[in-house]
Amino acid sequence: MKGYTQTRILAKKGLLPSKNRQKSEEHRSANVIQFSIFISLAAAFVISPILGRKIAQDDEFREKYVPDWYDFRVKPPKSAWTRQELHDQIVEVERDMRERAIRGDFTPDKLDELKSSLQPRSDLSNEDMELAKKYGWGAIHPGVDPDDFDEDDE
Fold first, then answer.
1. 84: which of 39, 59, 65, 149 lies 20 to 30 Å off by Cα?
2. 28-67 confidence digits (pLDDT tens)
3. How many CB atoms lie within 10 A of CB 52?
4. Which residues cross the membrane (predicted)?
5. Structure pTM?
């Protein structure tokens, strides 16, 4: 009740601001600032995907308007192979392996020499060596166990 009477007294004295009076210049300028911030954020929200796609797809636009320090694209290496070059190299390796097999480079004696010449890496611990021996990680072909081939079993 006290609030009601105080408000009524202020209204009679003319000290209570009217609800219908004109807004002050400060109030209008605050509204303009808020509206301009809203418009700029909305424009940035709408334009950013369009601009991003343009930067990503258009090389001329990127070179003209985007500085080098802002370019985070992964550049392909200079010596990247084409599919055809990679295919040709694989075919050449297969042909070389076939020719070596025909010449007899993969006889059991030569494979045993190769196995004995392969030295384990020096940075492996004894535990690593035991695990490699247990699971066959160091073997040339892990699926083939030398003890499985007994010639007299035939």
1. 59
2. 888 999 999 999 999 999 999 999 999 989 989 999 998 9
3. 10
4. 32-52
5. 0.35
